[in-house]
Write a structure and sequence with these properties.
This protein is of the alpha+beta class. The chain is 52% helix and 14% strand. Helix 1 packs across helix 3.
Length: 161
């Protein structure tokens, strides 16, 4: 088991090497809009999982996830060779490419937050001018029993008297 700090450094270096190789050396047009987001390396440094995301050509166009996955799969050997040359480790880790779901999840969370803001605004709108259902002072005050007061007065008179 390797040192976790060493695994993190290797993962960062693999991310840099793969991103650079995709940008400058692999000549596949399906990889033009691929961005490497993260890399995780196992504790024994034998396997690396590379996370990527795909952007569309334009802001409103749908990204080609299937084409990018196929292009990364076909370039896996070349990228592993580049990683081996760039890291200098004894055993070059195998590369597994996984589409990163963070952009979709962040969009979903943003939509949920927008719904929550709308619901809060609706509650605030309904609350303006509303009154409480009960008394103004919801706490009960202790009762003053007239019998207890009379008994106390009688006890005081007898003690004086």
């Amino acid at each position: 088991m390797a040192d976790p700090a060493r695994a993190r450094k290797l993962a960062k270096r693999i991310s840099q090497i793969v991103a650079s190789a995709i940008e400058h050396e692999v000549k596949d047009p399906r990889l033009d809009y691929v961005t490497i987001t993260d890399t995780k390396v196992t504790g024994d440094l034998h396997d690396a999982t590379v996370y990527y995301t795909v952007l569309g050509e334009k802001l409103d166009s749908v990204p080609d996830f299937a084409g990018a996955a196929a292009a990364l799969e076909s370039a896996r050997g070349v990228l592993r060779t580049k990683v081996g040359q760039g890291t200098g480790v004894r055993y070059t880790p195998t590369l597994t490419f996984v589409a990163d779901t963070i952009p979709e999840e962040s969009k979903r969370i943003e939509d949920l937050l927008a719904k929550a803001r709308e619901a809060d605004a609706e509650v605030a709108r309904r609350a303006t001018g509303a009154q409480h259902a009960g008394d103004a002072d919801p706490y009960k005050a202790p009762r003053e029993d007239s019998e207890d007061a009379e008994d106390d007065e009688f006890a005081e008179e007898e003690s004086r008297g």
